[in-house]
Amino acid sequence: MFRKFLLLLLPAACCCKPVLSQTDSAFARSVVDTLTGTYFWGRGYTNNGMQKAAAYLEQQFRNMQLQPLNGKAFTQPFSYPVNTFPGAMEVSINGKKLQPGVDYIVAPQSRGVKGNGSLVPADTNQFVNPAHRIMVMKEDKLTWSAEQEQADFTLIQLDKKRFPETPQTITADIDNKMVHSFATANIAGVVKGTLYPDSVIFITAHYDHLGGMGKDTYFPGANDNASGISLLLTLARYYAQHPQHCSIGFICFAGEEAGLVGSKYFSEHPLVPLKQIRFLLNLDLEGTGTEGITVVNATEYPAAFAQLQAINNKAGYLPGIKARGKAANSDHYWFSEQGVPAFFLYTMGGIKAYHDVFDRGATLPLDHINGLSGLLKEFVKRLAQ
Q1: What span, in angstroms and rounded, lies between the C-alpha atoms of 32 and 88?
Q2: How far is CA 238 from CA 20, 29, 30, 313, 377, in A?
Q3: Which of 25, 100, 119, 243 could bridge across to 127 with cysteines, CB 3.0–4.6 Å?
Q4: Which of 20-34, 151-165, 255-269, 351-365 has the lowest mean pLDDT?
């Protein structure tokens, strides 16, 4: 069913095809602007956002004439449970109607609720309506996520700067739907190596984000991670025209925001033997860079990290490269746990929007994409040799 759904969406995705003659930065910008638009609705769990993004990426791989990684299809289907909010999303506190995503968010594990009543203070920042099992918490920043389980209560998180007064009454109409088997897919393609086709360098990035919270609010996910996908597609376009000695593979993971689900599935059901992976470069949060980049697993692979630094020191692609140790903070993790050499690279500095409605394409600078692209091309060239 997922495959059929992708094919139905391909005509819509084709209209979003970037122009291949653009420079790296302009091409990346077109990808970010496309993926953060309302059509893809945050690449999440409502309005078919993630499925539409998968269809778009599959079409890009076809346009670039990549080969399916498993020789049959670009998709690797899988499923997992997730709590979603497809319908009503209305909250009023002290008689004031609040704006979802800006004034408040509903915690991702929350159940749906419809009712009104008073709020009893539990402390200075927490307020409870026992009758409807609603909790209201004041927060310094609203940061949403995805959750694979549903709780037996509803948690509403308020931005304390926008709502400084003490919550006393609440009216809520919140619709949730627990999807026990959400169908999605990793998208994987390859440019075969000219001398060593069975030795693969992988470039990976997750394409999913948080989707929508109600019918009118979605989380664009520009830096996280339309930016990483834009860089991956930039490199895929390049390697499709410049094959290397070994194969260059590209995986766009689904389900990262729900707990690195797609990369875990791939690592447990690899489309190529893991021992054939020469190195894996995971791209996540690539939209800034005024303070350079950080490399996770740098201390695990010091020789490779030293080589990356040497390239940058000579060419000056980025303001700097910082080392970080092992961390389970993106899709590289499951591979390195199984002995695959892997780096996770992310940019630093610039805007701080993260997992909120303000992570938009219009405010994402992407001012170091060309530098990142140049650095990775040189690093991959050395790895491929």
Answers
A1: 29
A2: 10, 16, 16, 23, 9
A3: 119
A4: 20-34
Q: What is the mean pLDDT of the chain?
A: 94
Task: With CA atoms as reference, report the closest residue to 287 among 238, 241, 243, 221.
Answer: 221
Buried b (16+ CB within 10 A) or exposed e, 83-110: bbbbeebebebeeeebebbebbbbbbbb
Can you read off the two tokens belonging to residue 142? Answer: 């609203």
Instruction: Give dist(CA 285, CA 230) in Å, integer.
Output: 11
Q: How far apart are CA 310 and CA 287, in angstroms?
A: 23
57 in the same domain as 113: no
DSSP-derived secondary structure for 317-361: -SS-EEEE----SSTTHHHHHTT--EEEEEE-SS----SSTT--G
What local confidence, expressed as pLDDT, does residue 172 receive?
98
List the beta bridge partners of residue 77. 185
* pLDDT tens digits for range 54-105: 999 999 999 999 999 988 899 999 999 999 999 999 999 999 999 999 999 9
Answer yes or no: are the C-beta atoms of 251 and 190 closer than 8 Å: no
Under 8 Å between Cβ of 356 and 101: yes
In degrees to the nearest 10, what's the CA dihedral of 15, 21, 27, 33?
-30
Buried b (16+ CB within 10 A) or exposed e, 121-140: eeeeeebbbeeebbbbbbee
pTM, two decimal places: 0.94
Q: Which of 149, 174, 199 is the last residue of a domain?
A: 174
**Helices 49-63 and 227-241, axial angle in degrees (round to 10):** 20
Do residues 260 and 285 touch, judged by C-beta distance below 8 A?
Answer: no
pLDDT bucket at 385, cuts 50 / 70 / 90: confident
Q: What's the domain range around 206?
A: 2-82+180-384
How many structural domains is the chain composed of? Answer: 2
Provide the H-helix boundaries in the chain: 2-14, 24-35, 49-63, 227-241, 261-268, 302-315, 333-337, 369-384
